Amino acid sequence: RKDYHDILIESHGKVGLITLNRPKALNALSSHLFHEINSALEKYDEDPNISTIVITGNERAFAAGADIKEMVGKSFADVYKTAFLGHWGKINDIRKPVIAAVNGFALGGGCELAMSCDIIYAGEKAVFGQPEIKLGIIPGAGGTQRLVRAIGKSKAMEIVLSGRNFTAKEAEQWGLVSKVLPVDKVLDEAIKLGQEIASLSQPSIQAAKESINRAFELSLKEGCHFERKLFYSLFALKDKEEGIDAFVKKRDPKWTDE
Ligand code: CO8
């Protein structure tokens, strides 16, 4: 498609794929590239033919971070007044599930982009890290917040304060990624997972995502309360009747997403 320069988009059934495509810069997330990611995410989120989204890079890099070259010479006033890179938060508003298929480097903003997705699949050679400290800065797109929630304080401190990278295997052991796969299988498996999720009733998928994400914002009591309200509200769906009836009658459900 001609509308984008630094990403490729293609759909696989109901899965919308976004491939970061700035290979010479190891998919460094320039403002322009990030605007394109946001635009594609928004289009997929609105597209009734798409149910889940996969973001990937190439074998060498998912993304090696924000574009460091854009930061040269920028002062505090410059970045503060213009809310530099403020548009990075858009992905958090996407309602449909977003899966990251990570090969190669996922560093700095690249690691943060992966962590902003709902599920991460990683290739055996993937390398994660928050090396910002080595540039005299700190993570700025949620790295200090999401990493500690995913892997706990001691490990998050070690990673962010030392700037050392960590492997796909470590990321899996620590619970940051849900699966480590051979390099050439990561994208296929992520798309397969996307298709599996897309084959279910979408209002309940979106409610489940919304509810899980509340766990990061609310106390346990409030979170369970929120979940219960959503649970009750799903009884208003035709798909709830369909799913329960299909189970009772031992047949396959036919979802209408209503
Ligand atoms: N930004 C810009 N260009 C980059 C970046 C980057 N993050 N990473 C790599 N490149 C470019 C290199 O400059 C090089 O370009 P050229 O060929 O023109 O010199 C090309 O990509 C290939 O890179 P290398 O030659 O360095 O490849 P190597 O295999 O030798 O090394 C590394 C690979 C180890 C990944 C190395 O490139 C590297 O260390 N990259 C930088 C990693 C990093 O520090 N990332 C963190 C950036 S800061 C950040 O992400 C903050 C996010 C804040 C978000 C805030 C939102 C509000």
From TrEMBL:
Alphabetical list of InterPro entries matching this protein: ClpP/crotonase-like_dom_sf, Enoyl-CoA_hyd/isom_CS, Enoyl-CoA_hydra/iso, Enoyl-CoA_hydra_C
GO cellular component, one term: mitochondrion
The organism of origin for this protein: Rhizophagus clarus
Pfam families the UniProt entry points to: ECH_1
Protein name stated in the entry: Probable enoyl-CoA hydratase, mitochondrial
Top-level taxon of origin: Eukaryota
Alphabetized UniProt keyword annotations: Fatty acid metabolism, Lipid metabolism, Lyase
EC assignment: 4.2.1.17
Catalytic class of the enzyme: lyase
Keyword flag DNA damage: no
An annotated Gene Ontology molecular function: enoyl-CoA hydratase activity
GO biological process: fatty acid beta-oxidation
UniProt record similarity statement: Belongs to the enoyl-CoA hydratase/isomerase family.
